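Here is a complete protein record:
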Amino acid sequence: MTTTQMQAWRAPLLRFDADGRPAYDSDGLLVTGPGADGVRRVVDAGAHGAVAARHPGVPVERLPGRLIAPGFIDMHVHYPQTDIIGSPAEGLLPWLENYTFPAEARFADPAHAAGVARFFFDELARNGVTTALAFATSHPASADAFFTEAERRGLRMIGGKVLQDRHSPDGVRDRTEQSLLDTEALIERWHGKGRLGYAITPRFAPSCSDAQLHGAGELARRHPGTWIQSHVAENKDEVRWVRELYPQARSYLDVYRRFGLLRSRAVYAHCIYLDDTDRALMRETGTAAAVSPTSNLFLGSGFFDYGSAARTGMLHGLASDVGGGTSFSPFHTMLAAYYVSREGQSKPGLSLAPSQLWWQHTGGAARALGLDGVTGTLQPGTEADFVVLDPQATPLLARKTAQANGLEELLFALIVLGDDRVVERTVTA
């Protein structure tokens, strides 16, 4: 690699080590260059004085007053729900019936799916999100639109066609055998193409017949490098419904275990109403929770138990859950996670450090997705997906960050007062 192929950026620099500890250089230098696969990677990073001496002749872009940080990772998002964000509802199940399913039925039209995909990826970039695990709809065209646009932009994205062959209205309900054939065809078409990954995607246990869940488990067995994504234990009414449908299962999570859907690279959104046996099962199988605080607060679902997750060693990271979630902004998500962690009426309350919140939306999310060492930390060798943030993006934020006493206060000011205006640039490998 020649110096002409390399590029460097000089600014305050935030990285994370393998243990999730933040590393901060007030005068940092990030050096990137193309790997053998054409993907741009971090070559070196750290204090400017030390790093610059190792790379003489590399062109440097100076970004005074800015902050370079890893690109954000969204562990659970519904790209077809972009247009229904902010829709009023009495709870999860009415929200699905009145907004979600009618909107998703439109994705049978490839042109509509393509248009929403373009807007969706624009919105992710505007908010500094460089990787996401996304639901499409039950229509194969919706997954094709997602992957086509992600490939065009060279992004690291994971997604999948939804499986739902029962308890679903016309327009989104699929046919069991065909849904599994479509899923395998999509895996063969998209998984591992560039930086794309496929996720086998049962919507949630009530929407899938035993035959469909069994088929999903068989696909997961045949394609061990794929992801699995679904929902579990989000809402008390949903939990009650699953208990009625599967009285022989020990718990909602146990339903997925019975069908071979718990493993590394399996991600379940919400995970609110779990017990320690469930959490231990997730730890033992390498299954991760996608914590979705803005949607849980918006729909009144409940509060994720951060203390129990940490105590039991359960993998977890942050997610927007748009459109039940109320914002694409990782700052809004991190702030909501802080609120959820502090809530102490239904569970023990605790106060998450700002750097912990940030880790859950970057390197911690990467680890939960099975992408440890690939992205999310800005350590040498990782993919060079990063954001350039402006801590002075608004007058109030500028006033607050100017008074920040150390990294934690700076990050917390950004979490509390930040939004898409803070994201000056999103750079992808």
